């Protein structure tokens, strides 16, 4: 397992496309802050954390498209370049190989998410302070729940990204085709974005709960979203288990 993880991490470090995406996102954050500054920033409650939240909300569909791309790129690599035989000749089992792909995919998308939130929050915090004052109708959240927000942010992002990666993993292993897995992944994202307008379905949608769960934790309504959280955990367990089962039965040496 350790060998497989090290190999996958090395590949990610040397992927210039990931660093290029981070640079583009950072420039977009600077432009977003510039637009807010030129607008006079009339809201008294605005803060670095609020800016990071609003910026992510504005690019959330784009983030999930990037997530699909990186997940498919990482997991599909050996399928696409027909290097699966070589990859499986190392001193690792098929389960270790696939699980390392899953973990590195989750870590990559999580790093992308945290970069967006922390860099956008850092830029805004330098100019507007670090207190968490999020205007939610009649409710204002003060700075004493910042830690809870951050813990919830990391926890919810790992949970939702893990669930989505497990679904993509299952699709990729079943199809063994980069184009099919990428197309189905994109379709799933667009479907979830369309369904977000339904309040009853919202707690079960990965695309929205990545950023909504931390806010509900602060409002004390986490139990309301417990069915959704349970669903995400089930998706991770079932998705990874089914993927490993299918992968172990595939003939890679034809």
TrEMBL record:
Bilayer-crossing regions: 18-36, 62-81, 102-127, 147-171, 178-195, 223-247
Keywords: Membrane, Transmembrane, Transmembrane helix
Coiled coil feature spans: none
Lineage top rank: taxon: Bacteria
Keyword field contains Oxidoreductase: no
PANTHER family xrefs: INTEGRAL MEMBRANE PROTEIN-RELATED, MEMBRANE PROTEIN
Protein name stated in the entry: Uncharacterized protein
Native organism taxonomy: Bacteria, Bacillati, Bacillota, Bacilli, Bacillales
């Amino acid at each position: 397992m350790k060998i497989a993880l090290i190999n996958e991490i090395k590949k990610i470090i040397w992927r210039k496309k990931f660093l290029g995406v981070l640079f583009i996102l950072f420039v977009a954050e600077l432009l977003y802050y510039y637009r807010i500054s030129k607008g006079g920033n009339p809201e008294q409650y605005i803060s670095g954390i609020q800016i990071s939240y609003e910026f992510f909300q504005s690019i959330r569909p784009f983030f999930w498209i990037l997530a699909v791309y990186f997940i498919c790129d990482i997991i599909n690599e050996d399928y696409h370049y027909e290097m699966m035989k070589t990859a499986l000749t190392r001193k690792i089992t098929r389960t270790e190989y696939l699980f390392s792909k899953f973990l590195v995919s989750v870590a990559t998308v999580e790093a992308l998410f945290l970069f967006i939130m922390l860099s956008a929050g850092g830029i805004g915090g330098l100019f507007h302070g670090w207190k968490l004052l999020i205007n939610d109708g009649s409710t204002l959240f003060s700075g004493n729940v910042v830690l809870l927000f951050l813990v919830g942010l990391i926890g919810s992002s790992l949970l939702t990204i893990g669930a989505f990666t497990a679904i993509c993993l299952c699709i990729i292993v079943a199809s063994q085709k980069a184009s099919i897995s990428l197309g189905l992944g994109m379709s799933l994202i667009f479907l979830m974005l369309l369904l977000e307008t339904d309040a009853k379905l919202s707690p079960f949608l990965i695309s929205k709960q990545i950023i909504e769960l931390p806010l509900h934790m602060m409002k004390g309504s986490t139990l309301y979203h417990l069915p959704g959280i349970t669903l995400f955990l089930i998706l991770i367990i079932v998705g990874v288990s089914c993927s490993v089962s299918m992968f172990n039965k595939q003939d890679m040496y034809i």
